[in-house]
């Protein structure tokens, strides 16, 4: 599996703001939006393009556009904070939604929402979820996509734990990963260390569980 870490100084500065426990929800959401713009920008570097004629005020020339804009799939809740920034860079894209909540005892994902096109053959998908911890949630999401015929999945994360990356690798699913960091590991509650806490709660409120 191709894993790409975005170590640009501006991306790392936004990530640091998100890690900082003193960062409040509005600033956390702003840093996530800005970091998502950078992750999407880098992930899109390899997207196929097509040429088409455009007229400038001076003359005719050749323009460039994405040949096949991806479907965007934020994983609720935490991925919602990446959706608007991704759509801003990819305005031609459509959006599907997957709602998953990790069980606090088994750490397995519980699916509560799924709104996706029935047939994803030929359509690349950009999955948005800031956290790859055990990998259960993203494996579940990517399997839903592959079951609908998707063969080209890019997962965008803020943080990835090595064990989660290994799980996605073992899944054999057709995906690549773009992340701002590969962290050290997980604690006994399966939170990423050093991490940033619960990405959903830090954006939208909730009780700390780590
Ligand atoms: O790799 P995993 O061990 O499966 O953990 C990662 C998942 O945990 C978080 O969601 P959470 O279940 O906390 O739901 P939320 O977004 O509603 O907070 C996160 O956004 C991922 O989806
Ligand atoms: O560290 C973690 C692990 C899973 N989900 C989160 O939001 N944070
Ligand atoms: Mg959460």
What does this structure look like?
One of its GO terms (molecular function) is uracil phosphoribosyltransferase activity. Its cofactor is Mg(2+). With 210 residues, the protein is α/β, with parallel strands linked by helices. It has one domain (2-48, 67-204): Rossmann fold (3-Layer(aba) Sandwich). The protein has helices at 9-19, 25-43, 80-89, 136-147, 162-171, 199-204; strands spanning 3-5, 49-55, 60-66, 71-76, 97-102, 109-115, 125-128, 131-132, 153-160, 175-182, 185-186, 192-193. Strands 1, 4, 5, 6, 7, 8, 9 and 10 form an eight-stranded mixed β-sheet that branches. Helix 2 packs across helix 3 (80-89). The structure holds 1-O-pyrophosphono-5-O-phosphono-alpha-D-ribofuranose, uracil (URA) and magnesium ion.
List the helices and strands and how they pair.
Blueprint: E1 3-5, H1 9-19, H2 25-43, E2 49-55, E3 60-66, E4 71-76, H3 80-89, E5 97-102, E6 109-115, E7 125-128, E8 131-132, H4 136-147, E9 153-160, H5 162-171, E10 175-182, E11 185-186, E12 192-193, H6 199-204
Parallel strand pairs: 1-10, 4-5, 4-7, 7-9, 8-9, 9-10
Antiparallel strand pairs: 2-3, 5-6, 11-12
CATH class: Alpha Beta
Question: Based on DSSP secondary structure assignment, what is the total number of beta strands?
Answer: 12
Judged by helices, strands and strand pairing, the structural class is alpha/beta
Rounded to the nearest angstrom, the radius of gyration is: 17 Å
List the defining traits of the structure above.
binds 1-O-pyrophosphono-5-O-phosphono-alpha-D-ribofuranose; 210 residues; binds uracil; allosteric enzyme; single chain; alpha/beta; eight-stranded mixed beta sheet; GTP binding
């Amino acid at each position: 599996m191709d894993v790409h870490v975005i170590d640009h100084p501006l991306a790392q500065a936004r990530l640091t703001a998100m890690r900082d426990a003193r960062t409040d929800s509005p600033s956390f959401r702003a840093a996530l939006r800005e970091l998502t713009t950078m992750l999407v920008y880098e992930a899109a570097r390899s997207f196929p393009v097509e040429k088409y004629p455009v007229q400038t005020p001076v003359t005719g020339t050749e323009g460039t556009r994405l040949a096949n804009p991806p479907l965007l799939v934020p994983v609720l809740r935490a991925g919602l904070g990446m959706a608007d920034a991704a759509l801003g860079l990819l305005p031609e894209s459509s959006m599907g939604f997957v709602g998953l909540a990790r069980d606090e005892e088994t750490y397995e994902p519980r699916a509560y929402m799924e709104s996706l096109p029935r047939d994803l053959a030929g359509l690349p998908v950009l999955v948005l979820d800031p956290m790859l911890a055990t990998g259960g949630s993203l494996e579940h999401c990517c399997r839903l996509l592959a079951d609908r015929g998707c063969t080209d999945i890019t997962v965008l994360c803020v943080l990835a734990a090595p064990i989660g990356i290994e799980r996605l690798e073992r899944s054999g699913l057709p995906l690549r990963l773009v992340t701002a960091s590969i962290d050290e590991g997980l604690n006994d509650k399966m939170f990423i260390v050093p991490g940033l806490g619960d990405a959903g709660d830090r954006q939208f409120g909730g009780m700390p569980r780590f």
